[in-house]
Design goal:
Layout (H helix, E strand, L loop, with lengths): L1 E5 L2 E3 L16 E8 L5 H11 L8 E5 L5 E5 L6 E3 L17 E6 L2 E7 L5 H20 L46 H9 L4 E11 H10 L4 H16 L6 E9 L14 E9 L7 H15 L2 H19 L4 H11 L12 E5 L12 E7 L5 E7 L2 E10 L3 H12 L5 E7 L10
Parallel strand pairs: 6-7, 10-12, 12-14
Antiparallel strand pairs: 1-2, 3-8, 3-13, 4-5, 7-8, 9-15, 9-16, 10-11, 14-15
């Protein structure tokens, strides 16, 4: 949706990620909700189309304006809810009525696919929770008690459709600047995963852990949920990477919406956190590692640091506005994207935690809820009820990374139940030219 120009941007900040190159990487989030009972697709279809009315900013399709810019326009067609087939349709295609989201189901599994351009894990979770709440309500003829879930018919929260502008951002000098120690990058893994048919296997596993076990452990070791998994993955890679790789680097995203007064905003307002561990540091005890990791996270989530990163992102969007033609805009994004462009900084692995959100009585009907995204040695961490779920994502047909991670959890005394591996089956975007 085109909007009045503010602080240099002509369009919704959500639209700029659509210019990213998807020839190899999918910018789609695929949420998997495993229900305790088989899914009734007709009930789910009705529920999904009730739920979407609560989220008008997701009920859109993509169009190209006279400047070659991608814009969102309202899409009144029904949300597609389809059985799992042999091929997953693209977002924006006719098969899904032009929407940037659609739902598949198979047995007890519900797959909710949505464009990463419109939101991240925190932004999509309310839509997912509303959809599943409505489905449980319709299927079982009950009204599940879940005060934190937004219900169809309820008004938007204050600032739910708000977007960041330059005047919201701190102009302070950053108190910290990440200086890369050139961590190991799994470049050959990605090359094999993209081009070698004998090694390519875009897969994930689902791990179920007790929230009580994790919380008890992190309280004893001056840590946090995100920091715990960052350290656990780094220690796992310490077991399998050759000694010549001196530094193992972790990345995570920080949702800085609260920092700039947009706590209810649905759009992805993220900054990146980098934590490099030397092999010597990974021999330290967990308490020291927890303190070190939390300290570095605190420095990089300071508004003076994250606001500078968002300021640079808004500047990039403004530069794309000044370019004529969709093809030229996409070329410029490919060269300058902070995730994959010439200035991008990468670690060895990635951890993302969406945080605790209260599903109320709906949790009684769910076995697990995970997010499936593009990535290799990447963890998407979610939570429902008294459980924490980890989606361990890879691009290769290999066991070594996962086995090492599971070994670390065993050494730390954290019980875990594992399912998989499963194929990711991530869709991509089909956009107008």
């Amino acid at each position: 949706m085109k909007r009045k120009e503010q602080n240099g941007l002509k369009y919704s900040i959500d639209t700029y990620s659509l210019y990213r190159d998807e020839s190899r990487i999918s910018y789609v989030v695929r949420a998997k909700v495993k229900m305790k009972d088989p899914v009734d697709i007709d009930v789910l279809r009705t529920a999904a189309n009730k739920a979407i009315k609560r989220y008008p900013y997701f009920a859109v399709k993509v169009r190209v304006d006279k400047d070659g810019a991608y814009i969102y326009v309202p899409n009144e067609k029904p949300v597609s809810v389809i059985p799992m087939g042999t091929k997953t349709p693209d977002l924006g295609s006719e098969e899904v009525n032009g929407h940037l989201l659609f739902i598949e189901c198979d047995g007890k599994d519900v797959y909710l696919n949505i464009s990463h351009a419109m939101c991240g894990g925190r932004g999509l979770q309310p839509w997912i929770m509303t959809t599943i709440w409505q489905y449980v309500s319709d299927k079982y003829g009950i009204v599940p008690d879940a005060p934190s879930i937004r219900k169809p018919g309820e008004p938007l929260l204050e600032g739910e459709m708000a977007e960041p502008t330059l005047d919201m951002l701190s102009g302070e000098e950053p108190i910290y600047e990440y200086k890369s120690q050139n961590p190991k990058m799994l470049v050959w893994d990605y090359i094999n995963g993209m081009f070698n048919p004998f090694m390519r296997n875009n897969n994930y596993r689902v791990l179920t852990l007790s929230q009580k076990d994790i919380i008890s452990y992190i309280k004893q070791n001056d840590s946090s949920v995100s920091a715990f998994f960052m350290i656990a993955v780094a220690k796992a890679l310490d077991k399998v990477l050759p000694e010549k790789d001196k530094v193992i680097g972790g990345e995570m995203a920080h949702n800085m919406a609260v920092n700039i007064g947009l706590k209810n905003a649905h759009c992805d307002i993220l900054s990146n956190i980098h934590i490099d561990y030397t092999r010597e540091q990974l021999k330290m005890d967990m308490e020291k590692l927890g303190t070190m990791t939390r300290g570095r996270v605190m420095l990089q989530t300071d508004p003076s640091v994250s606001c500078r990163e968002l300021r640079d992102h808004i500047k990039l969007c403004g530069e794309i506005d000044n370019i004529q033609g969709t093809k030229a805009k996409r070329k410029y994004m490919a060269a300058n994207d902070f995730l994959t462009g010439k200035k991008a900084q990468h670690g060895t692995f990635y951890v993302s935690y969406t945080g605790q959100m209260d599903w109320g009585e709906v949790a009684n009907y769910i076995d697990y809820y995970v997010l499936i995204t593009e990535g290799h040695v990447m963890l998407e961490v979610t939570s429902v009820g008294d459980k924490i779920y980890v989606c361990f994502l890879q691009v290769l047909k290999t066991e070594k990374y996962f086995n090492a991670f599971r070994e670390v959890l065993k050494e730390l005394g954290i019980p875990v139940v594992v399912e998989g591996p499963y194929l990711k089956r991530l869709p991509k975007h089909r956009l107008p030219s």
